[in-house]
What does this fold into?
Amino acid sequence: MVFSRCCGAQKLLRLASRGPIVLFYHGVVEKIIDPEVQQLHMSVRDFERQIQFLRRHREIISMDHLYDCVVNNRLENSNQVILTFDDGYKNNAEIVAPLLHGWTIPFTVFISTRHISEHRRFGTYYVRAAIRYTKSGKIRLSAMGRSFDLTTGTNRLAAEKTITRMVKRAPQALADQIVGECIALVQPDRWEELNARFASDEPMSWKDVNYIRSVGGSVGSHGHDHCILHANQPEEVVHQQLRLSREAIEQNGAECKYFSYPNGTLDDISQVAYSALKSTRFRLCFTTIEGEFTPGVDRHLAPRFWAVPDYEEFCYTLSQTGRQNGPYFDSCRTMQAGQLAFS
It folds into this structure.
């Protein structure tokens, strides 16, 4: 993969590229203490290295610039990159924003508004931390109707993955019950210690959101509860999530023009959600389906690439983005065919 980060190699490998790409990150921290708990974060050293690569080899543009290219059919520049950050972690304001502002680099943060308003951490953080650090060797989660053996590290990791998967696939009310039972596995004073240790997962405040806007960042919606909008979510919940998140952002003085689906795979987006977002004022709605921005891109099923922390893999991924355009449009056709049947 070392070959892929050479300037000449990049140009050669990217012959199949046809348009801009959008990258998504989550959090950036000074140091990763526990990769299992902090799996959504990368070290500032790795982040700075990636940004320096992009500054040398790409043109980093704003979300509004990308939208302008979409509406005016100017998507031929495969050298352009857009930076996005999902969830709304406090480190986006404390670490990411000052760095990018210093380099005059635009970026967009998609925020989950209830977590910001209530200073509430994300449910999957509580699952990861609780299963890893509970003193119990065996637990039962009534909301799932399952028991888990936690006597070995391997068992804990398997349990965490199973519970997280259920939280992500369950209706929001059930997901909240599961997370609540996980929180109860750890004593409150121990949670204080864990939350201090893993400050990485602290959500930002509205003051942080305003700071991001003041240094050239923009803000979009990531839902209200980080509710994954799959087919198991009731229709009224989907509409409520979109309405509440937009209202919260606009009440705090920001425009809400862009949306990012929580989790964002094709399986995480129901026909109800896709239809609801097509009827809103959101200009672009982002998935985690890989692909470039090329003519015909679905504005409400917009593609993005995960910025994998490993530098060599990151460079390689950026050299191969054009290969995902075919699969991306296959995903669009699947969703659009389902939409015809849905309507």
In short: Residues 123-197 form one domain. DSSP finds 14 helices and twelve strands in the chain.
